[in-house]
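User: Structure tokens for both sequences below?

Assistant:
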Amino acid sequence: MIEEYKVGEYGLENETEGMYARTNNGIIGKIINSNSDEMINGPELLVNNKIYCVERNSIKDIQKSIIDLLEVGDYVNNGYIYEIGNTEDGHKWVHNLNGLLLFEKDIKTILTKEIYEANCYTVERNEEC
């Protein structure tokens, strides 16, 4: 969890390059540079072949496995995640509404709930005739 990989004054304190991060606004990416020479900058994240420099205080969580960053309400492989658990031998899984039980090797796409909500358009209807 984030407590294990505290954000320091000039970047992330621990060796976190190659790990995965989730920001407060739902961006998930691989940390490719955890050292920043500017005090306000945090790590650089590789997201869909683009590099993003994120602020240190925007990091919500850092994990070695991308599946550990998933939350109920996210979408994985176009299915809504409603349950997350672990097998008896400690392997994490997610269960989506498509009826699929997914492990890390099965993950192809992720749409976080924060990104979904930020881009969701609500249709308002006037019910009067």
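Moving on to the next sequence.
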Amino acid sequence: MEDMPPILPDPDTIAAAAMEIYTSRDGQVAILRLVGRLTVGEEPGGLKKATVDAVAGGATTVLLDLSQVPYIDSTRLGELIAAHVTVSRHGGRLVLAGATARITDLLTVAGLEGIVEMFPSTDTAFAGLKNRT
């Protein structure tokens, strides 16, 4: 996996942090590490742009690392769905990793549990992806 800048947010401030996206590649897998809250107040379109860039760069799988995302509101849930549609239209797949129980519950209530692959961590996501290729 390519090196990413270290992400060591202060656990006391991550809940209030604006969303940031760190990107890297591991073969055909684009890893988008999201950090901070995904809410309507944040800059719109960042996740869509990162997803489009990943697919345009040749990624067949886009892995969203949500391990440092404490909260997603309904507007940004729509962006996750749009990211799934973008990747699917290009013959790829969107994979989520590291979502908190609260976010997993939100995705389940929204009916996305069977549509988007979800893993407890990026390590288990990579293991699962290797077993399917």
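User: Anything stand out in the second?

Assistant: The first strand starts at residue 20 and ends at 26.
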